[in-house]
Write a structure and sequence with these properties.
Layout (H helix, E strand, L loop, with lengths): L12 H38 L2 H7 L3 H10 L4 E6 L9 E5 L1 H4 L9 E4 L2 E5 L3 E4 L2 E8 L1 H7 L6 E7 L3
Antiparallel strand pairs: 1-7, 2-6, 3-4, 3-7, 5-6
Helix pairs in contact: 1-3
């Protein structure tokens, strides 16, 4: 008599649902964390704006500098960049220097314009591995819409949503 053994395949739909669920929870957690940090930052700016001009002067800042810094996260920023790709089968991407993400160390979802065409919703993510730069991917349809290919130069405008 032969004994039959059945082995469950762990690469089926249940695994895909679990992976999608973890990704969704991770994105929600990141979004909530970003909102909390922004709320804390706004509260800190409001506290500074409540101070007397003499106290601000003692700290070494002016009221105008505090107001400018409070708006900094919302102002669009533009810079020249090159469309890059490591391998033909991988998506294109743009490297974003630290000064253009204004101190952000986690992923965030701004709108991006390329050569004043767009905006396109993108996620700008830290490069990781000890690097201080960030990046965002570009799909083939986005590159085609703007008329850009690998190694082409363009003007990138990042428009924060929050």
């Amino acid at each position: 008599m032969t004994e039959k053994t059945s082995v469950m395949n762990s690469s089926g739909p249940a695994r895909s649902i679990g992976t999608a669920g973890r990704l969704l929870i991770s994105r929600l957690r990141g979004g909530f964390e970003l909102r909390r940090r922004n709320k804390d930052r706004r509260a800190a700016f409001l506290n500074l704006l409540r101070l007397d001009d003499n106290i601000l002067e003692d700290i070494g800042v002016t009221r105008v500098e505090v107001e400018d810094a409070a708006r900094l996260d919302k102002a669009p920023v533009s810079f020249a960049a090159r469309i890059l790709r490591k391998e033909e089968f991988l998506p294109r991407y743009v490297v974003v220097k630290p000064e253009y993400v204004r101190g952000r160390v986690e992923a965030f979802p701004p709108d991006v314009m390329l050569n004043d065409i767009g905006p396109f919703g993108r996620n700008i993510r830290p490069w990781g591995k000890g690097s201080d730069v960030s990046f965002f991917n570009l799909t083939e349809p986005r590159c085609s819409k703007v008329g850009l290919g690998t190694n082409d130069e363009c003007v990138v405008t990042i428009i924060p949503k929050e």
